[in-house]
Every structure is written in C-alpha cells, then in structure tokens.
Amino acid sequence: MKTISTAFLLTIACLSAFAQKHTAIVKIFKVTTFQPNGSITIQMDTVKESYNKLDLTYFAKHYNYPKPWLPDSLRNPIYKSQKVVVSVGERDDKKFHYSTYTVYDSLSRVTAFGTTACMVCNFLPSEYRVVYNTNGNIEKITKSYMSSSNAQNLYTIAYFPSGNINEFDCFNYKTLVKRIELL
User: Fold this and answer.
1) In which region does residue 89 sit, left (phi positive, over 0), alpha (psi from -120 to 50) or beta (all else)?
2) 6 partner at 20 to 30 Å CA-CA among 20, 32, 141, 173?
3) For each of the chain's 183 residues, which pLDDT tens digit applies?
4) Radius of gyration of the chain (CA)
C-alpha cells in the first residue's frame, strides 16, 4: 500500500510540474498606431502563449517588427567578432542572386544584419544596426538603406527589471508610427 501511495504522489507531482511548465500565460498588449493624418488607433491584443520571456523574437513573430530580416537568434556562441554571409538564389542567374549577412561582436551578439540588392525582387540593400544597453538587452535597432546614411526606421525597446520587454516603439523617418505596450 505504501508503494502505491508513493507512486501516486510521484505521479501527481510530475503532472503538476508538467502543467506548470506548459501552462499558457495570458498577456495583454496595447497596440497604438499613429496615422500620417494625425488619427490614432488603439487596439487591445490578448495573447495566450507559453513563452517565458518577451524578447525581440516574440515581437517579430507576433507583430512583424522588426522584420523581415531578423536573424533566428540574436546570439550565437559559434561566432565572435565575425561577419557571416549567406547567399540566396541561383548563382547562374545573377538577377535572382542576393545575400544576407549577420555581424557578431566579441560577445557573440548580433550587432548588424542585412541584405544585398536583388534586381528582380525589387528591394534595395538594407542594413539593421543593433545597440545594446548596459544590461546586455537590445536598446534600439536602426534600419537604413545602403544608398543612404540616414536611418529610415528606428525601433526602441524598454524593459521591465525582469528583462521582459514592456514597450516597443517603431519610428519611420523619426515619426512614431506604432507603440506596443505590455499592460
């Protein structure tokens, strides 16, 4: 009988731990869009997810900011103080050929990423620059086209002390166009 009750208690404890680990948490975001004509749109977005941390990858997945060239990981211990280039497209037909690249600092963090041009795809070469705060969190990302030294897009990020993002602002040519806040 003692063996059965011990096994039963162990089973309950394991199921409880599994449920706590995989329980989805409800997060409420206030998404404010600032229109060029001066109007403001506010939407409340309730997301039920099992993410432990609200980081930049989370915002890219759910809100498409910053996209489309955000690397899968913003840290890679394999690369230190290196630039990694990946070619895309057919090499025989130069029109479709373009490359993406990622630059890593000495701490294996992404400090820049971007693309070369693709004539048929009709996009210009662009570069994103990543700036970190003293805690090692991303503070801002700027996007500019290679033909211009001025940043066309700016993303600024504020954090809770826990390291979760609590506010994400998107600027287009120095004008705030979207703010996403965790309530």
Assistant:
1) left
2) 20
3) 444 444 443 344 443 444 445 556 788 899 999 998 999 999 998 877 666 677 787 788 888 877 666 777 888 899 999 998 887 766 555 555 667 888 999 999 999 988 876 665 566 778 889 999 998 899 999 888 765 666 688 899 999 888 888 999 999 888 999 999 998
4) 21
Task: Write the single-letter amino acid at 165.
Answer: I
Around 52, how many Cα atoms within 13 Å sit in the side-chain half-sphere? 3
Count of CB atoms within 10 A of residue 169's CB?
A: 18
Q: Which two tokens stand for residue 87?
A: 């070619």
Residue 108 CA, distance from chain mean position: 17
Query: Which DSSP state fits 94?
Result: G
DSSP bridge pairs for 29: 45, 182
3-state secondary structure of 174: coil
Domain positions in the chain are 25-182
